[in-house]
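This follows on from our talk about sequence and fold. Go ahead and set the record down below:
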Amino acid sequence: MRAWKRRAGVVAGLVLSAGVAHAAPPPAEVFFKDPAIVEAVLSPSGRKLAVRSAFDGNRIGLGVLDLSPGGKPIRTAQFKDGDISRVHWVNDERLVFSVVDLSDGGGRPNGAPGLFAINPDGSEVRQLVRRMGRPLVTDGRTRNDRLLDWNHRLLAVPRPQPGEVNEEVLMVEFSTDEHRLETPLWLNTRTGRTRSTGVNAPPNTVGWVTDSRGELRVALTRHEGRRSALWREPGSQSWQPLYESGLLNAPFGINAVDDAGQLYVTRTQGPAGELALGLYDFEARAPSKKPLVTVPGFDFNGRVLNDTAGAALGVRVIADGETTVWQNAAMRALQAQADERMPGHINSISCRRCAQPDMVALVRSYSDQEPGQFWLYQAQPPDGEANWRPVGRVRNEVKPAEMAQMELQRIKARDGRDLPVWITKGAAAGPLPAVVLVHGGPWVRGNVWGWHGMAQFLASRGYVVIEPEFRGSTGYGHAHFRAGFKQWGLAMQDDVADALRWTQQQGIASDKACIAGASYGGYSTLMGLVKDPALYRCGVAWLAVTDLELLVRGSWWVNDDTSSAARQFTLPETIGDSEKDAALLAANSPVRQAAAIKAPLLLAFGEADVRVPLAHGERLRKAMREAGNEPAWVTYPGEGHGFAVLKNRVDFAERMETFLARHLQP
């Protein structure tokens, strides 16, 4: 049996026993149902813990655990027509949250999420922002006499300051015109009253960056194919330009503003153009030449961690997985404790009164096989209590010993480009039938080390799962990202094939392989069957782009959410111009190449998808039928660009399982 090393910048993991491979796999629902603990957040003092959970019901509710001696858990809030999301502590006695309803699918117009405020014991409920398309809450205990309209969103919750009790949050109103943002305002969560920030928004603002107090420090604008960032000193009404550029070539990125007024930015460096974190030099009017944090092989993706006084405690970054480098000795010691107690896991710490003698910390411990456990650490626990207490598991039904292990390989593509490839594999020895799982986007990072439901589901069915970070993916340097421009169906597709071939050459995958993916991953699935028919025995594509001309140009007859700005300024450069590159688009459009698809194909779409409308699927289905290769087909009413309803997630997974087994016979 081959030993597979866990990769997350931490320690090597354990090898599963060979017997596990022969156990009956868990049912699909285990991999796709909502977590038991969706979120856990410490209050500002660390004396209370808010938990979002279904509490054995069908809806995600909110509970609060009092961590003081004799404290008890309280069911704080639950809705019959929605799930609580985005919980924030305003102070130790006040929380805010939004409510979403995906019960009929993720694509129906289910309205804006609204905003509510509540005390930890469930009292003094106040609706602050209207839920679009929903009646007001009139349960006799909810105040809604002052309401902001549905198009207001929570922008920031100020960090508590010593000796102050904050009751306000920062809100921003957005316009449906290309998502322009208005000047934010302060909202009192107890009275519903608003007040001005005293700051004027620059024209065409689409984003804001605040410091920990909620001070507006950076405005991000976009207009007619140009973008800019502007800086504001505290107490000033004037905005100073930081940069102006095209939409795809900003000279640096904005990361954060600390309480000392330092602006953290990211900029590319080295041949690969990897992002590094540094400070902005206001005298030189440019990022400092010397970076603060670099992550070799990866773009910087993370943040500086500060204590309540604003002092830096360390930095948290994502390499292959999450890692935290603590500058503070007390935090290093706590991290060492956590890592010793839970070896082979990423132990992510959030703390209150960090590094102080009475510190309280919440630790999420997870791995590629364990979706996560929450632990509470109290440096000065109540009498009779231990320093470490379990809070609960993220997914109770998942048995880590039955899960596969995940690792990141760096291979060479056929043209020599560095190609990161994720491999998820169970304990079975020898080459296994393979599923090449292509991520969507495509201009995102596909994966991070940890537990992932779809990959684990497929691995539990006896497959090795191969997930390439093909060119065009982000997170691995600007050069890797730019190399994907106008390469849909070309070099991007070659990377996917090269990842499979490498895995076969290493004896990890057998010659039995299928290709699968959603959105862009669905497009890549289709083009894989077109370009490399000898590699794949079948394909599974859901929510798939099938018509590049429809994507790039749009249609009066097909409703989608691709903006006119994207079609005018970015898609012509990243995918192709509908006129100048017409031949390129036609040659790499699955609907135009449908006759070349000979392998069995399963197609699935959401009937209410506006990112990739159902017309994409219908056009390909028609073209394949005319070519004599009718695909397997399923659509889900009410679903959008992703399946929100559990029964639909499970149904699709089971269809996929049956389809793959028929053609791969693991």
